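Good morning C.,

I know you're traveling, so I'll keep this short. The sequence:
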Amino acid sequence: MSGDFGGIVRLVAREVLRPRSAEEVAAVLRDADGPVVPRGCAHSTYGQAQTDGGVLLDMRGLRAVHRVRPDRVTVDAGATWREVLEATLPHGRTPPVLTDHLDVTVGGTLSAGGVGGASHRHGLQADQVLSLEVATPRGEVVACSPERRRDLFDAVRGGLGRHGVIVRAVLRLVPAPERVRVHTLAYATAGALLDALRRLPADHLQGRAKLDPVWRYELTAAVYGSGPEITGAFEVAETSYAEFVDRMRPDVAELIRLGEWARPHPWGIVFLPARRAAAVIEATLAETTAADLGLSGLVLISRPVVRNVPALPVPPDPVMLAMLRTASPGAADPAVMLEANRRLLERARAVGGTRYPIDAVPPEAG
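The tokens, ready to paste straight into the viewer:
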């Protein structure tokens, strides 16, 4: 087991273990004489779920979804969001914030923060946690929550496993709608898109920049159930909630078929202060060609709310810019894409921005 979704860094672990209980995770941490790195589905892009000569914990051995209650569900950290939904949707319940791609683990996204299309309304996935069980570096299994061991609770959410390994989580649930209306809107400038991301009364909001042949902006605004109409859309579609949250599945299948899913993915992802975001987005896109993104590359733009995840620093009123690059045949070399990520991070930091910790930047960029 080596590599991650980024396909850039490949480290060789001394040992790979698949623990089956929290106590087994704790025992590995207690007895380790070197680094111990947890790994879910390894959707990081620059070796964050790898170790050079240490112990790699394959957390997919802990993947059970336990009792579903009306307001919460208890899940093991190695369960994917798809597996969580398979357990909660039959009860008419859903986590309020989901990843676009469901085949990543609960522990992995909570350890990174977890941004989704509903984050403008509910916050990060890490904001939806009611309590955790954590295996600490001292080899103890500790329960923590906002009321109990708050220091540990705050350190591991968004902490990338540095302060302990999440082994179980109690997640907030809300009623799942049956139907979703999906509106697609167009904007000429980044500023207009950011304003729409702030004001539109939708349950799910996600912006995108497209090069066609100049940079243009689109917004997906999804309304659940009988929510308000969104005016000005050039396309409106209706679908079930289950189909909507799993909308990436056919795209992923096609990318796998084309070989794009297995190519290097030098992603650059930053948080920008909203008052400076439009200028940074437009400056970044002005120097970005189709070759700099790759055949299946995407530019995503959102305005997530970060309610209380101290381990993940973000500027006030953050805007997320995600340059999701793929080193396709004929596209720029991964090293060129990494250099573009370094420039993006420097530009973000110059205006008070920060980086999202699963992205790919050269080591000197930090």
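Safe travels,
E.
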